[in-house]
Description:
Strand content: 5-15%
CATH superfamily of the largest domain: Winged helix-like DNA-binding domain superfamily/Winged helix DNA-binding domain
Number of domains: 2
Helix content: 25-40%
Radius of gyration: 16 Å
Oligomer: single chain
CATH class of the largest domain: Mainly Alpha
Order of helices and strands: EEEHHEHHEHH
Amino acid sequence: MTSPDARPVHTLRRVDSPLGRLELVGDGEAVVALSIECNGRLPHDAEPEASDAVLDRAAEQLGEYFAGARRDFDVPVKLVGTEFQRTVWEELVDLEWGEVVSYGDLGRATGRATAGRAVGGAVGANPVPILVPCHRVLASDGRITGYSAGEGVATKAWLLEHEGIPFRLPSTHEVETAVELALGLERDGAAETAA
């Protein structure tokens, strides 16, 4: 089975950041993936860098963002996913610096008001975190419920703090439940798959 990160790399650039190394993947016209270092690794660590103008511009804008000098991005991104995922990601692009949305509000905005898990799945599948600000999605009570990039909740908390967004960390029980769900340990079959 091939992982999504095993796709051929067209252009590749790595950037140092306060979150660890970032890896930008492009197709010559747009950024198609952004990975945040996790456990000292990036998906294409073994590949040599071969940047292009789009990735150079993205790297520059990310540097400005981390320095507090940029609040939005204008580099082209190519969002490849299901129609529903693209709809969710397009809503995220419209979020301004410091603005948050709840999973429920995001579901309502996309016409799927009762599809919280599907919305969460689409948010978690975002191929270009930070550039498409999935970190700005919180539970309705302001709680972080997870983050699929970098070191997870710690990475999301850093990004929210950087933007001055108040948030609550998940409780130990919530973290344990999330780990069980991620590992498929839920026994009652209540877990839904993202549609």
